[in-house]
Amino acid sequence: IERMLQELCPEGVRYLSLGECIEIYTGIQFNKRDMSEVGTYPVLNGGINPSGFTEKYNEEKDTITISQGGASAGYVNWMDCKFWAGAHCFVVKPNNDILNNRYLYFLLKNSEQILMQAKHGAGIPGLNRDKVKNLIMPIPPLPIQEEIVRILDHFTELTASLQAELQARQEQYEYYRNKLLTFTKIGGGTQSVTWMKMSEICSVYTGGEMPKSSIVSDVKTGLYKYPIYANGKDVYGYSDSYRIKDDAVCISSIGANAGTVFFKKGCFTPIIRLKVIVPITNMVNTKYLYYAVSTLRIKTKGNGGIPNINANDIKKLLVPIPSFSEQQRIVSILDKFETLVNDLSQGLPAEIAAVQEQYEYYRNKLLTFKRIA
Known about the structure:
- The chain is an alpha+beta fold.
- Helices cover about 35% and strands about 20% of the residues.
- The protein contains ten helices and 20 strands.
- Strand 3 (about 40-45) and strand 4 form a beta hairpin.
- The longest helix has about 40 residues, at about 140-180.
């Protein structure tokens, strides 16, 4: 890029307002009743995801869109298929004599936060097209734009490849987890297993209330070092004490996440919306119990339309308990998959996050030029 800049524009790159080199317009209203949940062509409006699907289209593939209305107004998207652009969707097309379409997408994506912060209006916010047209952008010669596109698309393709591998590994993980935890013989044979009620092998706790004055948002040296979990995988806060000493299986028990299962290391406090399962016998490996519970269907009940899980229903669950050595063998296999598909520090999610960070770094760097005097 540096060599091309020296050769093609040694004095610097010209900056233009996008209004001088793009066409921007809104799509055509498409009634919700005419959409379906599945179909050939997505219908884009003000959101990040399609509003629905239809069997007709009004825009070709390889088109840039910007959400015009709603909470996602300003979101920049690249459509790689034919689609219907609705009335709350901006379509952006470049003057191809001076601006590469894909390069324009990277420019706009780099300015997405500016556009999202430019939306206005109470109730349903919207984005004025002049906010897009008034953006001042670097327009280097087309060969440089094309080289930048080649570099950035490499990162895009690498991320897509890693995402595909992650999806495949997740399916593989679930397959082997289900296979390893499916027992067909009861008593005797190589798959000898005893089915036991959860209440026979574990204590089941319900998270309680905790004064806000006892919670801090970050780890503190000394006293406030014990994590607090509420209804999900992430830490809710930290405390100077803990309720659960041992490693445990946790289950989100209220709301959309009800039934989601987590493994948590010991010395933590559960608060409302979390059920905690701790083995009371040394015949059960806690990590094995986590994998076994992950395959069970946990019954949820509706309370005012909000799903919730009762501790008594958890206690009634039947759990297959093979020999302790078999539990350890199963854990050793599934731990490798768990690290690969879920670990944010060393698995595929970590690699995807690193590539995404690298992509954003180079996108910022490659789209910054010396401005012509």
